[in-house]
Structure formats: structure tokens, C-alpha cells
From TrEMBL:
<dbReference type="InterPro" id="IPR048640">
    <property type="entry name" value="MgtC-like_C"/>
</dbReference>
<comment type="similarity">
    <text>Belongs to the MgtC/SapB family.</text>
</comment>
<keyword id="KW-1133">Transmembrane helix</keyword>
<comment type="function">
    <text>Virulence factor required for growth in low Mg(2+) medium and for intramacrophage survival. May be involved in regulating membrane potential by activating Na(+)/K(+)-ATPase.</text>
</comment>
<dbReference type="GO" id="GO:0005886">
    <property type="term" value="C:plasma membrane"/>
</dbReference>
<keyword id="KW-0472">Membrane</keyword>
<feature type="transmembrane region" description="Helical">
    <location>
        <begin position="42"/>
        <end position="59"/>
    </location>
</feature>
<feature type="transmembrane region" description="Helical">
    <location>
        <begin position="71"/>
        <end position="88"/>
    </location>
</feature>
<feature type="domain" description="MgtC/SapB/SrpB/YhiD N-terminal">
    <location>
        <begin position="19"/>
        <end position="139"/>
    </location>
</feature>
<keyword id="KW-0997">Cell inner membrane</keyword>
<protein>
    <recommendedName>
        <fullName>Protein MgtC</fullName>
    </recommendedName>
</protein>
<keyword id="KW-0812">Transmembrane</keyword>
<dbReference type="InterPro" id="IPR049177">
    <property type="entry name" value="MgtC_SapB_SrpB_YhiD_N"/>
</dbReference>
<dbReference type="InterPro" id="IPR003416">
    <property type="entry name" value="MgtC/SapB/SrpB/YhiD_fam"/>
</dbReference>
<feature type="transmembrane region" description="Helical">
    <location>
        <begin position="12"/>
        <end position="30"/>
    </location>
</feature>
<keyword id="KW-1003">Cell membrane</keyword>
<dbReference type="Pfam" id="PF21770">
    <property type="entry name" value="MgtC_SapB_C"/>
</dbReference>
Length: 238
């Protein structure tokens, strides 16, 4: 039997240590995620760590370190697909990025143990847990700081809802008023709302604005004939 020819007790023990370490470290990372009721919790992080360790250990036993490095690159790309499954976009908000990043780190922990770098895997586990726990108060503190619109880098849109027959002229007026306020539009689109109204959406080139100046443009546009409503909104880009 092929099994009898390839079986080696010491190699099996080495694999067992690698997988057990990945299991233990994945459990530590996953327990914190499970406690916070995240999409990818205890079992997911354990399986990611153990799976990565198993693939890397198998490649190393069959073909050596060079092949193990190749498999690690495949693990990294494969986890990218798994992480994409936990990322959800809800309007302007994106959820699940931290969970996806944690899965990526769990795979890295598994890769470390799969190559018998147990101490490195333990160190990485400590950093992952610290990132998800110790940094949380700092994140909450930063999130409470009011945003200075003049310093924040964001994408700004001015939206004017108008009668369809007035849209071409109002589009030109909006562009002129924005340029007069030193906020030129990089793109202006007409979005059909159905019926007799359309949205004129101007995306500004500027990544920082003075809200009072944009409010002035909005007020001026609302006085124009055919305008039903005018507003502006921002979304942070970095």
C-alpha cells in the first residue's frame, strides 16, 4: 500500500503540532469575533487557520519550502474570495471589512504554523487580538471627533430636482453658479425620476468645501423657476 511507504511517524507528529497550533490560535481569534457576534465567528476563523496550515504543511512535506511559498500565495488570494463574502454595502456604508481582514490574518496564522513557525503564529495571533480589542476605545474616541468639512477629503454632489423641460437650462445655471463659487463640477448628469421631474447631479472636483458657500449655491438654485428641490451631500473617500 502507498500509505505504508509514505507513512512517517515523526512527520505525522510534526503535522499534528502544526494543525493543533493553528486550531488553538484560530480559536483565540475566533472567540473574540464570536463574542462580538460578527459574521465570521469562532468556527470560521478556526477552519480558515487550520485549512491554511494544512495546505502549507502538505506542500512543504511533498515538495519542500519552495512549493510551500507558492501555496501560501494561493492561500492569500483564496482568502480574498472568502473575505468578499462577508463584506456588505448598504447605501454609502460598507460593513464587514474588519471581519474580512480578520479572516485574512487567521489564514496568515495558519500559514505560519503550517511552516512550523509556531512562535511567529502565536505572536501574530496576539497582534490580531490586540487590534480587535485594544484599538477599539481609540476607534470610538476618533469617531466622536466632529468632522471639519473644510479639511475632510470627500466626494461632494449637488443634486437639483427640477421639471424635465427646465432641466437643460437649469443644468447650465448650476454649473455657472458652482464655478462662480469656485467649486467647478467635474461631471454633471441627468437622472430620470419618472414623470415630469429629473435630478441634475453635479459631482464637484473639490475634495474640501466650505458648507456655507455650497448652501449659498443651493439657496440660489431653489429660487430658479422649475426647481422643486435642491440639496448637497458628501461621502468620505479616504
Amino acid at each position: 500500500m502507498r500509505f505504508i511507504e509514505t507513512f512517517d511517524l515523526w512527520s505525522l507528529a510534526d503535522t499534528a503540532v502544526s494543525l493543533a497550533s493553528a486550531f488553538a490560535f484560530g480559536t483565540l481569534i475566533g472567540a473574540e469575533r464570536q463574542y462580538r457576534q460578527r459574521t465570521a465567528g469562532l468556527r470560521t476563523n478556526v477552519l480558515v487557520a487550520v485549512g491554511a496550515a494544512a495546505f502549507v504543511d502538505l506542500a512543504q512535506r511533498i515538495a519542500g519550502s519552495e512549493e510551500a511559498v507558492r501555496v501560501i500565495s494561493y492561500v492569500v488570494s483564496g482568502i480574498g474570495f472568502l473575505g468578499a463574502g462577508v463584506i456588505m454595502k448598504e447605501g454609502m456604508n460598507v460593513r464587514g471589512l474588519n471581519t474580512a481582514a480578520t479572516l485574512w490574518c487567521s489564514a496568515a496564522v495558519g500559514a505560519c504554523t503550517g511552516t512550523d513557525m509556531i512562535a511567529e503564529g502565536a505572536l501574530l495571533t496576539a497582534f490580531v487580538i490586540a487590534g480587535n480589542t485594544l484599538l477599539r476605545p481609540l476607534v470610538n474616541a476618533i469617531a466622536r471627533i466632529p468632522i471639519d468639512e473644510q479639511k475632510a477629503e470627500a466626494t461632494y454632489e449637488v443634486r437639483v430636482t427640477a421639471r424635465r423641460d427646465n432641466a437643460p437650462a437649469l443644468r447650465d445655471q448650476l454649473v455657472e453658479k458652482l464655478e462662480a463659487a469656485n467649486y467647478p463640477a467635474g461631471d454633471v448628469e441627468l437622472a430620470d425620476r419618472g414623470g415630469e421631474t429629473v435630478d441634475i447631479v453635479a459631482t464637484l472636483i473639490s475634495t474640501a468645501i466650505d458648507p456655507k458657500e455650497i448652501d449659498g449655491v443651493i439657496s440660489a438654485m431653489e429660487k430658479e423657476d422649475g426647481v422643486r428641490h435642491a440639496t448637497w451631500e458628501s461621502s468620505t473617500t479616504g
